[in-house]
Write a structure and sequence with these properties.
The complex is a heterodimer of chains A (316) and B (335). By secondary structure, chain A is an alpha/beta fold. Chain A has two domains: 133 residues, Rossmann fold (3-Layer(aba) Sandwich), CATH 3.40.50.2300; 133 residues, Response regulator (Rossmann fold, 3-Layer(aba) Sandwich), CATH 3.40.50.2300. Chain A is built from eleven helices and twelve strands. Helices cover 49% and strands 19% of the residues of chain A. Chain B has a two-stranded antiparallel sheet. Chain B has one domain: ABC transporter involved in vitamin B12 uptake, BtuC. The two termini of chain B are 18 Å apart. Chain B has 335 residues and is mainly α. Classes of the chains: A alpha/beta (316), B mainly alpha (335). At the A-B interface, helix 1, strand 2, helix 3 and helix 4 of A face helix 1, helix 2, helix 10, helix 12 and helix 13 of B.
């Protein structure tokens, strides 16, 4: 019997602890849960910090949750269900798999709770808007920077993360179309896919370098792809290839600092979080929203990597 | 204890029923305390829709916990249930979406695949004498890899089989009592648990399950083909995992090939919270069911209270240790 008392006591203590923050939350305040695709990754923590900023600025309460990894589709659905139980004013949602979430999103829509999609978006017409990076424009900027570095002529290649996801397609095509439209002197000799995996991308990049000894530039469409290119160049000792990357992470920022990589595009994860919360408040108040809110992106290289504006959006 | 064949399992069973009742009361009391505590802490917790969300979240883990309970009672462990569930879902995807076969064949394929995988694990353990931890660790990786290979690392959607998502999302109970739209997935969990409890407590297979966990050597010495029974139990557990595969695929309307790692540990956690001993010979399906419910209530409740996610994980871990410790203390006091 003693043990049961201990157990019950401990459970109640846990609950009391848990109840403390929500005790303040009982009056009709504005509550916006954000359900993301991840939680402990640096990128998502940056999104969270942006959301926190907006929450403070507009005086609303937010929570930020995401599954341990991007395969846990059902866990994300459970999080969405728990968030709906709290009668939120609006919901921010970055779907791991849009289809799986449809019944709950429909439930939110029926209850008049606006849904704001962020990062990769949600298929269908339920979301009021999507706060995301304009990946096509960002990749076009990478193409411009590439052309600038290689003097507008020569052979280049792309290592992309995949050919099916929205971001994979947009970044690849954004780069290819910009080159095709504006830089007749540049020839894209190869586009290959490394699944965003550093090792796989390294092998892909090495194969491209072996096949094209006269290559002058390579573009990696995400962190893993870009680091793969850097690894390939390091392992093969190739010189004279301009590398443009995407996103950040320690390996990539180090490569830029030491000059191995020319520069990279960074999304603005802080902006994604901030704009999601801001759009949620606007949707709640019945304001018209554009279909897509561009949360911005930057190009960074050795010259500006330590600027406050850039440091704020980079992650290690 | 080594007197006769018939006696050994019976005495083991008698002990289990006696010990199990107390543990179930303890686990059930904790569940009630949690429900009451969360209801007091947040007015949003005790709503029909949230209770259904909790049951829905329990369904897959609950079915996995039932499967693992059988294996754990034999003194074994099954680390492969998470990825086996995914593998069964992928096979169903192949049968229904790629081959376009009727729904019933897809259901059969999932259960048969699970039973086959389970009997393979069982063979590794019983015939090849590979420790269950290692054998099922190997299976866990094999099945994870095969799921990715077969699906081409992409989700397989069931859009062409409209009835499929009703397995988990539809509500037969809700059709009869509109006020209680309990999803079929939950109904299936309770049916699976009921059947498993019946097998465990009322059939020869169940008796040998306990006997193998209590004293395998004495069962063998009394002339029973322990290998055969052990393989049968792993196969039964596998078939139940196949049902979990159907539930998750139906709920997500897709077979997600990369999913599955980590689910085995949650199922094992539910089993130990429910009072089943990892050293075998003792345990109950009802306990595991309550264990799975405790896990789901805890996760959902902490979320509804908006406890920061990092702390949710800490609390869940602490509860597991506390629950098992309380059980040990009670057992010590009893003996």
């Amino acid at each position: 019997m003693l043990s049961r008392r201990i157990l019950i006591g401990a459970l109640s203590a846990t609950l009391a602890l848990g109840a403390a923050p929500s005790a303040f939350a009982q009056d009709k305040e504005i509550y916006i849960p954000l359900i993301s695709k991840g939680f402990q990754h640096q990128f998502w923590q940056a999104v969270k910090s942006g959301a926190d900023q907006a929450a403070e600025e507009f005086g609303v309460r937010i929570t930020f949750e995401g599954p341990d990894n991007e395969t846990m589709v059902d866990r994300q659905i459970d999080m969405l269900a728990a968030a709906l139980a709290n009668n939120p004013s609006a919901i921010g949602f970055a779907a791991l798999d849009s289809q799986a979430a449809i019944p709950l999103l429909q439930q939110a829509a029926d209850a008049g709770i606006p849904v704001i999609a962020f990062d990769s978006g949600v298929e269908g017409d339920i979301p009021a808007t999507t706060a995301t990076t304009d990946n096509v424009a960002a990749a076009a900027l990478a193409a411009d920077k590439m052309a600038e570095k290689i003097g507008g002529a020569g052979k280049v290649a792309v290592v992309a993360h995949d050919q099916t996801s929205r971001t994979g397609i947009d970044r690849r095509d954004g780069f290819l179309n910009q080159i095709a439209a504006n830089y007749p002197g540049i020839e894209v000799v190869s586009v290959q896919y490394g699944a965003g995996d550093q090792l796989q991308s390294t092998e892909v990049a090495k194969a491209i370098l072996t096949a094209n000894p006269d290559l002058v530039g390579m573009f990696g469409t995400n962190e893993g792809s870009a680091i793969g290119i850097v690894n390939a160049i390091r392992e093969m000792g190739t010189e004279g290839v301009t590398i443009i990357g995407y996103d950040s992470g320690k390996a990539q920022t180090d490569a830029i600092r030491e000059g191995l990589m020319a520069g990279a595009i960074t999304q603005n994860p802080v902006g994604i979080g901030y704009e999601t919360v801001k759009a949620a408040i606007a949707a709640m108040n019945g304001e018209e929203l554009p279909a897509i809110i561009d949360t911005g992106f930057y190009y960074y290289d050795q010259s500006n990597i330590d600027d406050a504006e850039i440091q704020a959006v980079l992650y290690d | 204890m080594t007197t006769t064949t018939a006696n050994t399992p019976r005495t083991a069973l008698a002990r289990v029923i006696a010990a199990g009742t107390h543990q179930r009361v303890l686990a059930f009391a904790s569940l009630v305390v949690l429900l009451i505590g969360f209801s007091i802490a947040s007015p949003n917790f005790m709503q029909t829709s949230n209770m259904i969300a909790i049951l829905q979240a329990t369904s897959v883990n609950g079915v996995l916990a039932v499967a693992v309970t059988l294996v754990i009672i034999t003194g074994g462990i099954d680390l492969s249930v998470g990825t086996m569930m995914t593998f069964c879902a992928v096979i169903t995807g192949v049968v229904l979406t790629y081959a376009g076969l009727p729904l019933l064949l897809g259901v059969f394929a999932a259960i048969a695949t699970g039973a086959l995988c389970g009997s393979m694990s069982g063979t590794f353990v019983a015939k090849m004498k590979i420790p269950p931890f290692i054998a099922t660790l190997g299976m866990m990786l094999i099945l994870k890899g095969l799921s990715l290979v077969i699906s081409g690392t992409r989700p397989i959607y069931f859009n062409d089989t409209p009835g499929f998502s009703m397995i988990s999302r539809g509500s037969l109970i809700g059709d009869i009592f509109p006020a209680m739209p309990i999803p079929n997935g939950v109904l299936i969990l309770f049916i699976v648990a009921g059947v498993a409890a019946y097998i465990l407590n009322r059939t020869v297979l169940g008796r040998y399950c306990f006997a193998l966990g209590s004293n395998e050597e004495s069962v063998r010495l009394s002339g029973v083909n322990t290998d055969r029974w052990k393989i049968a139990i792993y196969a039964l557990a596998g078939a139940i995992v196949g049902i979990a595969g159907l539930l998750i695929a139906s709920r997500l309307n897709s077979a997600q090939p990369a999913l599955g790692l980590g689910y085995e540990l949650e199922a094992i956690a539910a089993v130990v919270i429910g009072g089943t001993s990892l050293s075998g010979g003792r345990g109950s399906i009802l306990g595991s069911l309550i264990g799975a419910l405790i896990m789901a209530v805890l996760t959902n409740g902490l979320r509804v209270l908006s406890v920061a996610q990092e702390w949710q994980t800490v609390v869940t871990g602490a509860i597991i240790i506390l629950a098992v410790y309380a059980d040990m203390m009670r057992r010590k006091g009893a003996s």
